[in-house]
Amino acid sequence: MLKTTVALLAGCLSACVASAQPFPNRPIRVVVPFPAGGNVDTYIRQLALQMEISMGQPLVIDNRGGANGILGCDIVAKSAPDGYTVLATSVAFAVNPSMYKRLPYDSEKHFTPITNYANGLGYVLVAHPSVPANNIRELIEIGKKQILRYSSAGIGNGQHLAGELLAQKAGITLQHIPYKGGGPALTAVLSSEVHLHFPGASVAVPHLKAGRLRGIGFTGDKRISSLPDLPTIAESGLPGYSFDTGWHAMFAPPKTPAAIVNRFQIEVKKAFENAALREAFSSTGYEPAAAPPAEFAKLFKADLTRFAEIMKAAKIEPQ
């Protein structure tokens, strides 16, 4: 009897893995390696709510901020490849190998790419109301007279690089102040600890409308529908400036079965069949995406090389 029961359980477990069907009523942990309130956290929560509908079980967001995402990523790298723990992170994940001399994991070997669920068009450059600038020209004039401080979600984060590029193009000095995630970095500019910040539009819009922050410009190539009156930085006084926010993506632990990886990618694609979800992303500067695992894996590897070259050109030394 005992042998029969064990055999039946083993068969059920094998079937679940083979079909990539999560075990009934068991939550799936989505590790976000940044504190709540930032870009990654905001978008994955919207996506997870829609995915829960078709998957039939909860996706629990687990915020593990610290060290520009490294702490949370390490948790996933060491998790079981059973489909119950996945990583939702930003393109900063592809930057970190060039930013740090030593990581507690190998970014290629210890993760299985699932899909990029969003491609960012750009950041919103915002200023605390105490900064007497309404556009990029006025900001540059202020920057020529004093050193302006800006916050980011961490060293090597896209927000950091957006600020570095702005300083280079404008010929001014910006002091970078890294925080443990987008949420704390946003709080820093709201409390005037820093002068500037580069949040995503979904994070920026409520504060702009409430007058808590002032929009200076959009870093992407074109304006976005949620902020139609906010010009791009390039069109409003700094020609040639352009910085997109890269991808947001999901990764699984190493050696996760292909069936499970493919299932997650399919569920992401299915979630974006919801028009309201697509609009929530696109109106705030992110294009919904759901590239197949193999396709995204190629993009990820290419970005590892691309950011290594950017870091070298910017003379940012690994820590």
Give the low-pLDDT segments: 1-20
Q: Strand order within the widest sheet?
A: 2-1-3-10-4-11
Number of helices: 11
Q: Which topology of the largest domain does CATH recognise?
A: D-Maltodextrin-Binding Protein, domain 2
Using only CA atoms, what is the Rg?
Answer: 21 Å
What is the percent of helical residues?
A: 40-55%
CATH architecture of the largest domain: 3-Layer(aba) Sandwich
Can you say what the CATH homologous superfamily of the largest domain is? Bordetella uptake gene, domain 1
The structure class reads alpha/beta
The run of helices and strands is: HEHEHEHEEHEHEHEHEEHHEH
Percent strand equals: 15-25%
The tally of beta strands, per DSSP, is 11
Characteristic terms for this protein:
42% helix, disordered N terminus, alpha/beta, 11 helices, D-Maltodextrin-Binding Protein, domain 2, 319 residues
